[in-house]
Amino acid sequence: MGAEQPPQGHLESGEVAAYLDGALPRSGRSRIEAHVAVCEECRRELIEVGRLLRTRPHRHRWYLPVGVAAAAAAVVLLAVWPRPAGRPAEPGYREPAVTSTVAPVVVAPRGVTAAVPRLVWTAVPHADRYRLAVFDDTGRVVWETETGDTSVPRPDSIPLQQGARYFWKVEARTGWQRWVGSELVGFSLGPPRP
Amino acid sequence: MVGYQRQLGGREVGWARVSRESQAPGTTSRLYLPTGWRAQLLPPELSGLLDAVDDAAREAAWKTFLETHSRLLLHTARTVSRDYDATMDAYAYLLEQLRRDDFRRLRGYIPDGRTKFTTWLVVVARRLCLDHLRRRYGRLQDAGSGSRAAQAVRRELVDFLAEELDASGRKDPRAAGNPETDLRTSELSRALTDAIGALDPRDQLLLKLRFEDGLSAREIGQLMGFPTPFHVYRRLNTLLERLRGALGRRGFQDPEP
Question: Which range marks the domain in which residue A42 is found?
Fold first, then answer.
């Protein structure tokens, strides 16, 4: 991969859009992939526009039956109805909801490793529980477990084959039925060190 | 842009530009569509704008177009701008350019049934915002451009494969600065470049997205159309095996003595 020159200039807007929408025939996709494999500018554009589209704001339309809408309106009215003077405000017992948090990051194992005695990851603020799953190369779950810690020993009953490729991820529970997951990370067992 | 070669009803009411790759030299292709094709193929907020018959209708249609797409355009401007003021500047520039010359840029959208209008609009909007940014702040210096990026890719792939081959002894601190080690690394890097060059362009792209651009498997899968991240990892695994084999045939498979 040297500093190759992209053939025939850069991609047109329609080509970038068609590639991202997955609407090109195989020959069209191949042509564009061959171009962006050597053209950093067009590749960067594909990546950035793809990200833009995935994070774009959406307009939400809410459709409710009339009865539900009326009930919702009644609840809102009761909630904002002015209270009699002199009544003290209710103390707050709940913490504010966690609306954004960092995801856990897989620490080990990653890549080629001589042994897998433990699986380790970073802590997530406000998380009280972690669940992890280990998959083989076909996507089959070979082990899954939950813990309150940020590492867990691999039991001997879960054998890993040398040279085989595995993947694993961990999810952190930050609230009621609210989980945030790490990336899927691959690892494999290399030969034992002498 | 790809044009059409079909003929509907034999009546010529419009034509589309055809990319040079898809037509024989010296020929032209025209798109034959019945009257009112815009209203049938374009999004309504766009067809209303492009087919407006007077200024009042045009302004009303532009207002409708903005009501539909201003959030997306602002989102695009925000992602390429440095701060709030730059975002609003870029957004204003973007709207001005879209309106320019009787919406010439918007008329460039070809409703060929392949591409969503919003996807195309984001591409055009981003390019306009980057143009505006370059005019104001100069061309952005990308740290990963050109040969430095290529070197970074080779270095990371070399490190990744050498970790498995144990070919360079770089984990041994005594090997640092050793001319023999440096020479072996250089040879390994050259061999790797040759091996990558022999791969299919789609596979080369996969390696670049992973090792040069640092995309996650999920993002690569979404961009290149893999069904799941597993398929990305599996393909990467296959490619790395192939590269190891190619390097092995060039003598890079025994650990350093």
Answer: 13-54
pLDDT, tens digit, 9 for 90 and up, residues B39-75: 567 899 999 999 999 999 999 999 999 999 999 999 9
CATH classification at residue A130:
2.60.40.10
Closest residue in A to B153 (Cα–Cα): A1
B231 near B218, Cβ under 8 Å? Answer: no
A4: nearest CA partner in chain B: B146
Question: What distance in Å separates residue A182's CA from the closest CA in chain B?
Answer: 11
User: In this predicted model, what pLDDT tens digit does every residue of B86-115 receive, in sequence order?
Assistant: 899 999 999 999 999 999 999 999 887 778
Domain assignment of residue B254, yes or no: no
Give residues 147 to 186 of B whose Cβ lies within 8 Å of A.
Answer: 147, 149-150, 153-154, 160, 163-164
**Dihedral sign computed on CA atoms, order B177, B180, B185, B190:** positive
Residue A134 lies in a domain: yes
Sort strands A185-189 and A111-113 into parallel, antiparallel or unpaired: parallel
Q: CB distance A18–B115 less than 8 Å?
A: yes
Residues A111, A185, single domain; the answer is yes
